[in-house]
Amino acid sequence: MAVSSTVRHKGVRVVTMDYPPVNALPVAGWYAVADAVRDAGNDGETRVVVLRAEGRGFNAGVDIKEIQATEGHSALLEVNRACYAAFKAIYECAVPVISAVNGFCLGGGVGLVGSSDVIVASDDAYFGVPEVDRGALGAATHLGRLVPQHMLRALYYTSTTVSAQRLHDLGTVHAVVPSADLDDAAFAFADQIAAKDTRVIRAAKEALNGIDPIDINLSYRFEQGFTYELNLAGVADEHRDAFVQHGGTLST
């Protein structure tokens, strides 16, 4: 289980998540993503980052079993800080970040892709935020960057998912390709960015962040406050316990 970072060629850095069986990241995994992306942006030789995953799906969110196996609130506090760090690192990375999404992208996974610059997805990919079913809140900020506002509310209240093709129709997923072609498609798009003058691209990234209509870092932290309230009230523990007792199945 690890997050790896490799240089492909021409300044294309590939950050890969590999946490079997479903890429539900533990606290250390979220911090590892943050560190890898931050280091990539700080490297003057890096022109673009591709964030991808091995295994059945891109990301199943946080490792709920880790939280429930830890006494007190330390794991909950750390996972919230770690997710915030990962999302912030991607959003503020000095170079564009392309998310290559295979299979499921749930909860914190939506936080990752919603913080990135471009999304390329496999034709079997789907996205959703099942936080309501887990007694928590979060990543509505990032889901709101992928879908219109009323669609966001419908998806969020019901914990249902949306396909990559639907997001492509909405204009938020750049391309949908067969699973076997996902990496090649993401790398091909990365090569287009890497071929540009990196000084201009880095300036463009900073400028685009500067004109965003909301501060996504503050917006996400606001959401997290309600998660803490639900935990103090004991609501979140009930839902997380039920999730673990039922085998921790993915929402669809």
TrEMBL record:
RNA-binding among keywords: no
A GO biological-process term: fatty acid beta-oxidation
Family annotation (InterPro entries): ClpP/crotonase-like_dom_sf, Enoyl-CoA_hydra/iso
Molecular-function GO term, any one: lyase activity
Keyword check for Transferase: no
A Pfam family matched in the record: ECH_1
Keyword vocabulary terms for this entry: Lipid metabolism, Lyase
Superkingdom assignment: Bacteria
Stored NCBIfam families: PRK07938.1
PANTHER family, A to Z: (7AS)-7A-METHYL-1,5-DIOXO-2,3,5,6,7,7A-HEXAHYDRO-1H-INDENE-CARBOXYL-COA HYDROLASE, ENOYL-COA HYDRATASE-RELATED
Family named by the database record: Belongs to the enoyl-CoA hydratase/isomerase family.
Protein name (database record): Enoyl-CoA hydratase family protein
Source organism per UniProt: Microcella pacifica
